[in-house]
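Aim 2, interim progress: modelling of the CU-O-CU linkage-bound target.
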Amino acid sequence: DDRGRRVFDLLARDGRRDFHGDGRITRTAGFDGDFLGPTLRARRGEQVVVNVVNRLAEETSVHWHGMHLPARMDGGPHQTIRPGATWSPTWTVDQPAATLWYHPHPHGQTEEHVYRGLAGMFILDDDREAALPLPRRYGVDDFPVIVQDRNFSRSGEFKVTRNVFAGIGVLGDTLLVNGTVGPYLDVRTERVRLRLLNGSTARTYNFGLADDRPFALIGTDGGLLPRTARVNRVQLSPGERAEIVVDVRPGERVTLRSTAPELGVGALADRFAGGADRFDVLELRAARTLAASPAVPDALVPLDRLDPAAAAATRTLSFSGRDINDRSMEMDRIDFAVTRDTTEVWEVVNRDGTPHNFHVHDVQFQVLSVGGAAPPPALSGWKDTVYLAPQRPIRIALRFTDHSDPDVPYMYHCHLLYHEDAGMMGQFVVV
Ligand code: C2O
Ligand code: CU
Ligand code: CU
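Predicted structure of the complex, ligand included:
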């Protein structure tokens, strides 16, 4: 069609990086480069083709997290790529402008592959977003901020140490932003848009600015919010994204921080799950003279509300241990089928005393309630991943459109990757 076609090449390979600048080399993996991968970008209406080449010594896959696309293009555990092979999924982008991402999803190996560095951002554009006065010059006033935590051994290798008490996976003591330790960003405009991605395998962050100044929360997982929220914190569990616009003053330095996240797991579990941890994430260094930026509008993109009363099915997904509804993931078991062009309501609940979160493939959903209460601003737009505090059920509405395939499933799972790998995942088909 006249909207065009985008062809990307993505080569998964082993890498090496000196993260500390002291000669200690870490063995890593990345797409095209040594760690992480290029930001891919496409516009609504465009056809995307990605030629994914696997130059790793083992099988992997590449999943387009947050993307609405046919199940066989999804890059989940059923679309693995053998070493030396190429996989070329193609689909047409048909969803709002958003900050999505991509990462491997081989069953049982996802944590390890992501931890080594296999991940990248996938930005979608559309006319509605382009019509709003928002910073959108990539690398000028609009930046990807991929936040990950890592542990390093003395010799500089990545170290996979899991706290047995929390049982949530690896919590690192060193933060990387876009693969950089101790990063800063030179800001040359009055306002800067940060596309925050929690690319960590287990850790939840509670982002804010060091002086507690409010910022504009304009978008979440699936795109822009209906209205800008002026907040001073945004909490993201693994896999979640937020787009924020920060005001800076000439010549100042202001630090993006993560303060203690509210995990809702109780004092002791909280400490083991990273609930007491604080990090400086990224220092913003404003130039003495700043180019003008337009004010962030209050109204962003209207949201068509899904009607829960019209739901064709209601399901409960209960997370406990490493199971969902008391079952562990099995590659050849389909857990349920949903009917195309219908709306469903799912109630998702964490029955444990430790953190989980919930992610579903193919669709963006709307949060109807959190523990029975109306969702906060950060959950007022399209989402594909949401934190699950213990015993606080989340009700969501989802609508499955366009793509159906009785044979190839989509996944839903905990995005704490250690849990996902251990079986806290299920599969559904759209028919
Ligand atoms: Cu980001 Cu099924 O994953
Ligand atoms: Cu996903
Ligand atoms: Cu979990």
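The chain has four helices and 31 strands. Residues 13 and 55 are 5 Å apart (CA to CA).
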